[in-house]
């Protein structure tokens, strides 16, 4: 997962749900995106495996201001946030489970 830091910290007000105690996987999806469904499964599995990690899915079309602010250009895009809401990793496209776990290692 390539590194990308916007310098912005995201909070519950930005993503619509509380941050995870240790890290948060934020997924930007769109309605007809097939890879988004597979990404949802992978991220939900990883979040369930790792204590203190939350998975939040955001409908990109319903959150256009946030999408523009964060420069999200395709779905799925996954942001890995640390406990403070700072973006530590970003990946566009369907991630592999091992890559998500490795990226979480940098956040926690």
The overall strand count is: 4
Main sheet, how many strands, which sense, barrel? 4 strands, mixed
Q: What order do the strands of the largest sheet run in, or round the barrel if closed?
A: 2-1-3-4
Number of helices: 4
Q: Which structural class is indicated by helix and strand composition?
A: alpha+beta
The best one-word shape is globular
User: How much beta, percentage-wise?
Assistant: 15-25%
Can you give a write-up of this model?
With 108 residues, this protein is an alpha+beta fold. Helix content is 35%, strand content 24%. Strands 2-1-3-4 form a four-stranded mixed β-sheet, with helices on one face. The longest helix is centred in the middle third of the chain and has 16 residues. The protein is globular, with a radius of gyration of 12 Å. It starts with 11 loop residues before the first helix and ends with a helix.
Q: How does the SSE layout of this entry go?
A:
Layout (H helix, E strand, L loop, with lengths): L11 H4 L7 E7 L4 H16 L3 E7 L4 H7 L6 E6 L4 E6 L4 H11 L1
Parallel strand pairs: 1-2
Antiparallel strand pairs: 1-3, 3-4
């Amino acid at each position: 997962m390539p590194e990308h830091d916007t310098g912005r910290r995201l909070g519950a007000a930005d993503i619509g749900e509380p941050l995870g105690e240790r890290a948060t996987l934020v997924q930007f999806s769109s309605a007809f995106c097939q890879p988004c469904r597979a990404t949802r499964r992978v991220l939900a599995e990883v979040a369930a495996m790792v204590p203190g990690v939350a998975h939040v899915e955001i409908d990109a079309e319903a959150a256009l201001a946030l999408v523009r602010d964060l420069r999200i250009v395709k779905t799925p895009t996954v942001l890995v946030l640390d406990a403070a809401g700072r973006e530590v990793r970003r990946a566009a496209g369907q991630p592999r489970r091992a890559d998500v776990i490795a990226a979480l290692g940098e956040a926690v």
